[in-house]
Amino acid sequence: MKKTLLIILATIMLTTMKAQEMQFSDSAVISLLTCSPGQEIYAKFGHSGIRINDPVTKNDLVFNYGIFSFNTENFYYKFIKGETDYYLGVHPTDMFLFEYDERNSMVWEQILNLTPLEKRKIIDALIDNYRPENRIYRYNYVFDNCATRPRDKILNNVTGYVQLQNTTESKTFRQWVGGYVGHDTWLKFGIDMVFGMAADKTTQQYESLFLPEVLMNEFERAKIITKNNENNRNLVKETRIIVNSDVTESQSSMLITKPFVVFSALLLLGILLSLYEQRTKKYYTILDSILLLGTGLAGIIVFYLMFISLHPLVKNNLNILWLNPFNIVAAVLIWIKPLRVYMFVYQIFNIMLLVLSLIALALSMQDFNAAVFPLIVLIFIRYSLWVVRIKHRIFRKAKFLIKSKPGN
Question: Quick count: other Cβ atoms within 10 Å of Cβ 285?
Fold first, then answer.
């Protein structure tokens, strides 16, 4: 109840606060706030905000670029397509921190080592950005998010330039994201399915600052370099923890939560079932139909993201080779006997695509999820056995028709 009332109060203050009402003196202290990751998917990567605490005007506010609403019309469709609009909100600091205290997340504050002129430039930029006509922006989870916006507001308004110390490990976008969602998790599997070849590009140092904790770590060692080196100084004056957490990170030990284990087990069961079919001549087309349906549905998602979505890291995705969108139709056609000849040709084409995907995997043309390999092998075995079985039936039927013609 207490949390609900605070959220309602914060919302009222957020919607009624005017840009011209936010007055700050030269005594204001500007800080970068970094919040540790939460359990929800949208909170997995943490959060950043800019705090301005002015002991003279008593304004203590957080400028927060991470505001969005699930109630937005067609929210999920827009999110998938890459048309999600976020906006800049301004919260009283105690209410902002309360949310993360309730979530049991840590919040670090890095007090920035700024001159009065630099403070004024950052404050003016934030207030101007908060005006109704400016506060909404098109969110991008890598290039324009709750961390890159504070980063740019700070870096673009210091005198001289900020020199980063090149201490961040060199990684690809996929590796950076993977570090926050686990090595063998369903979320990691899903992300690897939709990420394309662009996600395997090694990030430049500046690009890696799209993650709040990476931004914090780089700011910790950064220096402000001024003209003639007259006022060179550390960017961060002081770092402190203002919300603590007693969360201990734990990973589930249940095998069902690990895609590689699940698909390896399915591969083993698929091999055993296939051997049983060969011995008993009793075939389970339902399994082939399920594989076609599942890969077809996943293929539609991959196809949509590749060719329609605006997200930058989902283009040129080689997973489309084994996640054929047309399989969703083939899942039905495989049951229709008069269409077996057409399905035979189609499955030959599918097998060729599977071979190409295995070649792409072997040559590391794209960083595939490890769980993909047993799944592709299972599909390859099932499609190949179906083709061999149907080929014999087609040939037997063709021989019968030839023999039954008059004159033979």
Answer: 12
Segment (H or E) for 194: helix 186-194
Identify the helix (H) or strand (E) that includes residue 71. none
Look-up: residue for tokens 């201490």?
167
Q: Which two tokens stand for residue 104?
A: 């049991």
The CB-side HSE value for 20 (13 A sphere, CA atoms) comes to 0
Closest Cα to residue 162, out of 170, 172, 153, 171? 153
| Confidence bin at 3 (pLDDT 50/70/90) | very low
What's the chain's length in residues?
Answer: 408
Where do we find the tokens 């990684």?
A: 171
- Exposure string of 341-375, with b = 16+ CB inside 10 Å and e = fewer, is eebeebbeebbeebeebbebbeeeebbbbbbbbbb
Amino acid at 94: D
Query: What tokens were used for 30?
Result: 């500007």
Per-residue pLDDT tens digits for 136-170: 999 998 999 999 999 999 999 999 999 988 767 88
What is the CA 301 to chain-centroid distance, rounded? Answer: 15
> What's residue 244's pLDDT?
92
d(CA 319, CA 302): 8
Residue 106, φ and ψ in degrees, nearest 5: -80, 150
Interatomic CA distance for residues 375 and 368, integer angstroms = 12
Which residues, including other chains, have CB under 8 Å from residue 319's CB and lie 6 or more apart? 193, 194, 302, 357, 366, 368, 372
Q: How far apart are CA 243 and CA 35, in angstroms?
A: 9
**Residue 374 CA: distances (Å) to CA of 112, 262, 267, 268, 313:** 50, 9, 6, 9, 25
Q: What is the CA radius of gyration of the chain?
A: 28
Q: SS3 of 87, please?
A: strand
- Structural domain spans, the chain: 2-168+205-243, 255-400
At 12-50, the pLDDT tens digits run 344 445 655 688 999 999 999 999 998 887 788 999 999
Environment class of 178 (CB within 10 Å of its CB; exposed 0-12, middle 13-18, buried 19+)? buried
Q: Distance of alpha carbon 145 from its chain centroid, rounded?
A: 12
pLDDT digits (tens, 9 = 90+) for 245-301: 876 555 556 767 899 999 999 999 999 999 999 999 899 999 999 999 999 999 999
Q: Does the pLDDT value for residue 397 go beyond 70?
A: no
